[in-house]
Design a protein that fits this description.
With 369 residues, the chain is α+β, with helices and mostly antiparallel strands. Helix content is 52%, strand content 15%. It folds into three domains: 100 residues, Acyl-CoA dehydrogenase/oxidase, N-terminal domain (Butyryl-Coa Dehydrogenase, subunit A, domain 1, Orthogonal Bundle), CATH 1.10.540; 102 residues, Butyryl-CoA Dehydrogenase, subunit A, domain 2 (Beta Barrel), CATH 2.40.110; 151 residues, Butyryl-CoA Dehydrogenase, subunit A, domain 3 (Up-down Bundle). Strand 8 and strand 9 form a beta hairpin. The structure holds flavin-adenine dinucleotide (FAD).
């Protein structure tokens, strides 16, 4: 079982969320006031230091909180992941003034989304075309991003762009003239996460909106943002597996077929064992990645990829197993395992698809052995 750290935060979130995730999933929308309440307590990006208004916890504690939210609602967890990526990127690349200003906004109730993918730059982020160019004492931003989680609810977009021969991360208020946000219709999973296509049409930005003045390496920016995102998604998958374990074991104990509970039929019991192995293996990969992150170990980038790859695969297979155990009882919109089945599949695509993770891991194997 998961350690009960951040008990007050869990109780607060549990109370706010209640039994509403199924309703949000069907409606395809999260309540923005709930997001702002969680945001204003710093819970959407709990690793932000207290000096900037955050909760100031380590990666493992934040991971367990993320898993808890993931066990309730993957759409809500997705918002948490985006806010956390934005905060960690600002912390890493922003100057003193930018950190002070934007981190205070992100722990004060403003919502952020992170935009890197483009119509022609999905797995191949090096193909990115969105760029800023200087114009007088401002920058002008042009381009297009796709599937930006939470953009529909966001006050701020953290946008990764080209900047001359280098790259930059820019903070763009969503109400800036020239920012166009179009929600993605009928996503397969995480239906309430507010995924949107975003177009920037000659958006004018004052210089302080460019983190650290820009001129960073594209791969460093992506790797930093994606590493946080991978760990957050991985922990979210642990939450999906915990929700599936709870639903599957509960059902297998209660439902009687052929004169005994499903749990006493060995083939069903085997499914429960598989789910437990999936949850424990994923949690251990996440704990290892978070320990690497906390100690700024050189293997932290690979550890995050490994945790994400292991956990996403287990969550996708585990959610399918949970639906199998519940049979028709879990085969309807509104049931936690049906939602988990759709949500978990998308975890194999985001923050580096299965194939991209395997390419990174194979490269690491070739260099290490
Ligand atoms: C639920 C969800 C949330 C998202 N949230 C965000 C967000 O917040 N911000 C954002 O910027 N983007 C977001 N995205 C976009 C996401 O990052 C991309 O979908 C992802 O990077 C894959 O890109 P693609 O969809 O263009 O697929 P493609 O890159 O076209 O890939 C299609 C398939 O080909 C495989 N493939 C591609 N290239 C290779 C290769 N070189 N070798 C082997 N296999 C390969 C892929 O693994 C995949 O299976 C989100 C997407 C989803 C589905």
């Amino acid at each position: 079982m998961a350690p009960e750290n951040l008990a007050d935060e869990r109780a607060f979130i549990g109370e706010l969320v209640g039994d509403r995730p199924a309703e949000w999933d069907v409606a395809g929308e999260l309540p923005v006031d709930l997001l702002r309440k969680m945001g204003a307590k710093g819970m959407l990006c709990a690793e932000v230091p207290q000096a900037y208004g955050g909760v100031g916890v380590g990666s493992r504690e934040n991971g367990e909180l993320t898993a808890y939210v993931g066990s309730l609602c993957s759409s809500l967890r997705s918002i948490m992941t985006s806010q956390g990526i934005a905060a960690s990127t600002i912390q890493r690349f922003g100057d003193r003034e930018q950190r002070k200003r934007y981190l205070a906004e992100l722990t004060g109730g403003k919502l952020a989304a992170v935009a890197f993918s483009e119509p022609e730059a999905g797995s191949d982020l090096a193909a990115m075309q969105t760029r800023i160019r200087p114009d007088g004492d401002e920058f002008v931003l042009d381009g297009e991003k796709k599937w930006v989680t939470g953009a529909r609810y966001a006050d701020l977009l953290l946008v990764l762009v080209r900047h001359g021969d280098d790259a930059a991360a820019v903070v763009v208020p969503t109400d800036t003239p020239g920012v166009h946000i179009e929600p993605v219709a009928d996503p397969l999973g995480c239906r309430a996460a507010g995924h949107s296509q975003v177009r920037f049409d000659q958006v004018r930005l004052p210089v302080p909106r460019v983190l650290g003045g820009g001129g960073q390496s594209l791969s460093l920016l992506f790797t930093t943002a994606l590493s946080y995102g991978r760990m957050s998604v991985a922990w979210g998958c642990v939450g999906i597996l915990r929700a599936c374990l709870s639903a599957a074991t509960g059902h297998a104990k209660r439902r009687v077929q052929s004169g005994k509970p499903l749990a006493e039929h060995q083939l069903v019991a085997g499914h429960l064992a598989d789910l437990l192995v999936a949850e424990r293996t994923s949690a251990q990969a996440c704990e290892a990645a978070s320990r690497s992150w906390e100690s700024a170990s050189p293997d932290m980038i690979v550890a995050a990829v490994l945790a994400k790859h292991v956990s996403a695969g287990h969550a996708a297979r585990g959610a399918a197993t949970a639906v199998q155990v519940l049979g028709s009882a879990g085969s309807q919109d509104g049931h936690a395992v049906a939602r988990a089945y759709r949500d978990a599949k998308l975890m194999e695509i985001i923050e580096g698809s299965n194939e991209i993770c395997r390419l990174i891991l194979s490269q690491h194997a070739l260099e290490s052995f």
